[in-house]
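Subject: for your reference before the review

Hello V.,

The reviewers asked for a structural picture of the protein, and I figured it would be easier to keep everything in one thread rather than splitting it across files. Below is the amino acid sequence we used in the manuscript, unchanged from the supplementary table.
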Amino acid sequence: MTAELPALLELTLDGIAQGGDGVGRHEGVVVFARGGLPGERVRLRLTERKASYARGEVLEVLDPSPDRVAPAVASGDHAPWRHIAYPAQLRLKETILREQLAKLAGISDAPIAPIIAAPQPWAYRNAARLHAAGAAVGYYAAGTRDLVPLSADPLLLPALNEALAALGPLLPPGLLSGVSLRGSSAFGYGLAVLHPAEGAPLGELDHLGAVWRAHAPSLAGALVEGRELFVASGVGELHDSLGGVTFSLGPTSFFQVNVPQAAHLLELTMEALAPAPGARLLDLYSGVGAFALPLAAAGASVTAVEEHAAAVADGRRSAELNDIFGVRFLRAPVERALPGLDGPFDGVVLDPPRRGCHPAVIEELARLAPPRVVYISCHPGILGRDLPPLLGAGYRLARLQPVDLFPQTPHIETVVVLER
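And here is what came back from the structure prediction:
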């Protein structure tokens, strides 16, 4: 059947896929249309054909949805929903979450609260990894390694756009393979890490970092990636604030890219776990302690488990900076650390990476049996996989709250509160 699919076809889209593509059908074959919206009639070029589905790129919108808008940025994988009006993005995310939970977890009546919208659908990102080619920096065009040069990105914090604009005229051809930018939402400045092109002299990057800082007042530090990171100019760490805690962050440690929306994740977690003196809590996949430190500041005793050494170092440094003494950081993979921990714990927060929890983590949570678990998910499909064994271990869904951390993309963050 798929051999008969034409390379170019027209179809009407009637759904939305988890990855953000429009969905239609042609002669019984499901077709995912990148750049399409439900309700649209489109012409697309097929890029992949399998037995039960096909994928394609929209070439022309023949009958546009009223939710379609002129994109603020021309191309790039970093903003795949740039063509969708923001209220429609929120509706589509709720639809995706509901469909994935029904399909994968068998939960057809999930108590999903209305998604918490971002106050700033643009200019919210505090981190970016850009590529370089010649004397240009930018993102790759969708599905390619063709560079789309940028002097500004409407998703980034203003301080990072100021730094990005200053870099272009200063960059010698062939010196960089890319550049990473990190910004402070609270304090309005940024750090940059220069990634050398193959064979590039580190001394020239050192010089570029110093000159770049001189032309970009918002850039507090420029570092160079060599055998190890070293500071070319300025400072080598960033400070940001979340939940009344000031975090000291190295240039490679993960911190939520949308801090105002991350504050909602923290508020929901604090409300569910009700930290108080004497409470024993677990923070799994704790990173730099974005949950552990505010929970401990409220009086709880928190065991934070994280395998990345740089994040653990940042968490300990931030605890000292804020005079927070109730956190014990364990550096280990979560699935290896949990069997050595003894309860009881009054509650657990876990914020796993996109791949979700190792199966052993679910088993250990069932063994420890804390009365409340807050699972923060960044992937509805993986959430649909992880929820059934937790529900089977005696938990019930008390709350499902999506939070839009990533406007202009199909990514969905969901806070799930489970109770025994």
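For the response letter, the relevant points are probably these. The longest helix spans residues 86-105. The CA atoms of residues 210 and 233 lie 5 Å apart.

Happy to draft the paragraph if you're swamped.

O.
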